[in-house]
Amino acid sequence: MADDNLPGGMSLRPESMLCFDIYATHHAIGQAYQPLLSEVGLTYPQYLVMIVLWDRDGQSVGDLGARLDLASSTLTPLIKRMESQGLLERKRDSSDERKVRVTLTNAGRELKQKASHVPACVARAFGLSMEEFVQLHGMLGKLRASLRNARVTGTA
Amino acid sequence: MADDNLPGGMSLRPESMLCFDIYATHHAIGQAYQPLLSEVGLTYPQYLVMIVLWDRDGQSVGDLGARLDLASSTLTPLIKRMESQGLLERKRDSSDERKVRVTLTNAGRELKQKASHVPACVARAFGLSMEEFVQLHGMLGKLRASLRNARVTGTA
DNA sequence: TGCGATTTAGTCGTGCTCGATATATACAGG
DNA sequence: CCTGTATATATCGAGCACGACTAAATCGCA
Quick one: A111 and A77 in the same domain? Predict the structure, then answer.
């Protein structure tokens, strides 16, 4: 008998499950970034934080969390590690002492140039055509939107 | 000036980068599974291990690692936690004492039924048509294959 | 046979991630 | 002004993930 009555040839074999696809792809992307990023002394999550700050400096911890979908319990230690590496500074917002503004140091800004080869390098390793790239981006966006909606509505 | 000269409108904004897409989708899928899996007392990685074992019992730690792309340093403690929960047993292979065979207990086998609603539940939350589902699966597989190949070849 | 190389798990330290919780600041109504 | 509530960040414990290393078993070949 079939393991489960799932639509359209789905089975419980991990290779054929979308969740496993995403899991494995996430994994593989991390592996692809790791050697490039270790040259500039960043982890992958730290790199994401830098990208957000390079785009706009001086954001609060909450702003970073909203962009990256990370909680303060993740960001606070991560940012502190980056602060101790001299990439950024943390200081309370003078007009709202609850907020912590994160600003890049010179070293943090300079790292943008040192890491400028990374995106193209990885994009090349992806081996996707521009059309596939756009298609994939669109579907993943739709998938996330569905998941966001399902969470609010409840899955039952 | 533009941040980087990347093909086809790519920029460093995280929302438009594919790596961020995968990262965020992985994240969102984890969040979708979490409430369903916590009902049956599993984490997401533990669920993946169970899926592999439900498919074929008695695999070695190395077999599980090959299927899930995880190192022994990740799997050993993870499997030990599952053993202490009574889901499986670890015993050395009598014909090759280096290997550790992981076999399900009755409780572990029974959990398959208790968790049988999970895949359809999540698939529903994905909100993708069957066509999109297949397309996405294909592109992610191609992406992983490219990354695997690039890692061997070297990215420079 | 015996010894070096390979394979297989496991250990350790570091870092990321979460949920639950704590603390401090800001705000709003009386 | 004071008090209760909301917001922003931080802390804590657990689990996951990796690379570097160790230990033990197996294999291969002289």
Answer: yes
Same domain for B82 and B145, yes or no, is no
Kindly report, residue by residue over B21-79, the tens digit of the pLDDT: 888 888 888 888 999 999 999 999 999 999 999 999 999 999 999 999 999 999 999 99
- Domain with B74, as residue range(s), is 30-112
Whether B38 and B96 share a structural domain = yes
**Tens of pLDDT along B79-125?**
999 999 999 999 999 999 999 999 999 999 999 999 999 988 888 88
Q: Which of A4, A10, A139 sits opposite B132 (nearest CB)?
A: A139
Instruction: Tell me whether residues B123 and A7 touch, CB distance under 8 A.
Output: yes
Distance from CA of A91 to the nearest CA of B (A): 24
DSSP per-residue string spanning B11-47: -S-GGG-HHHHHHHHHHHHHHHHHHHHHHTT--HHHH
- Asked if residue B127 belongs to a domain, the reply is yes
Which residue among A120, A135, A146 places its CB closest to the CB of B125? Answer: A146
Give nearest nucleotide to A48 (CA–C1').
C16
Q: Are residues A95 and A150 in the same domain?
A: no
In a domain, residue A3? The reply is no
- The tens digit of pLDDT for each residue in A24-63 reads 888 888 888 999 999 999 999 999 999 999 999 999 999 9
CA distances from B72 to B53, B62, B66, B79, B133 (A): 16, 7, 10, 10, 32
